[in-house]
Amino acid sequence: MIRAVWDNIKGLYSLIVGLSITARFLFSPQKTVHYPRKVVDPESLSSFRGPLELTPAADNSAQSRCISCQACVRACPGHCLTVVKGQGKAPIVWTYNFTLCCLCAACVESCPTGALRFSHKVYMVASSRQEMVLDLLSDLEKNAAVAND
Ligand code: SF4
Ligand code: SF4
User: Fold this and answer.
1) Residue 36 domain flag
2) Which of 50, 64, 89, 103: disulfide with 54, CB 3.0–4.6 Å?
3) Could you please report the per-residue DSSP string of 31-81?
């Protein structure tokens, strides 16, 4: 009998604690958005790590700052990156397998020219793994074309 009463008191206490937490969050500012009716405020994405992108060169937004040194390729624990050097220092192939990336930033931090950065793409979707293998040189050119339109 005493045990049953004690169990009920503990259950009631647990219920009150749970409801008080619910009430606290019910009236605090919302931290999520009802996508797709609303989207995340771009300013809130400044520290968000989306898939990698190449940083454009200062004098040509369609060219990357990459000098094909392979430092990022060596630093990457997930073997996500493929960089193939062309005739000069500029790469002719720059692919990034986003499915293998843990967003650790080792590549970004190891790059001597600041050629890599995390994008703020939060709404990226794909229907196959292959679509997540990204050609960053091509993406850079597309971004430059959109910016120059
Ligand atoms: S963020 Fe990390 S895992 Fe992803 S590509 Fe860079 S080094 Fe590799
Ligand atoms: S570390 Fe930087 S410069 Fe070197 S290959 Fe990677 S992106 Fe290019």
Assistant:
1) no
2) 64
3) -S--TTTS---GGGGTT---SEEEPBPSS-TTSB------HHHHH-TT--E
Ligand 1 contact, 83 CB (< 6 A): no
Binding site membership of 80 for ligand 1 (Cβ less than 6 Å)? yes
- pLDDT tens per residue, the chain (149 residues)? 888 999 999 999 999 999 999 999 998 988 888 888 998 888 888 889 999 999 999 999 999 999 999 999 999 999 999 999 999 999 999 999 999 999 999 999 999 999 999 999 998 899 999 999 999 999 999 999 988 77
pTM, entire model: 0.80
Q: Is 117 exposed, middle or buried (0-12, 13-18, 19+ CB in 10 A)?
A: middle
Number of domains, the chain = 2
Residues 107 and 69 in one domain: yes
- Closest atom, ligand 2, to C-alpha of 65: 3
Centroid of ligand 2 to alpha carbon of 46 (angstroms):
23
* Structural domain for 139, as ranges: 42-148
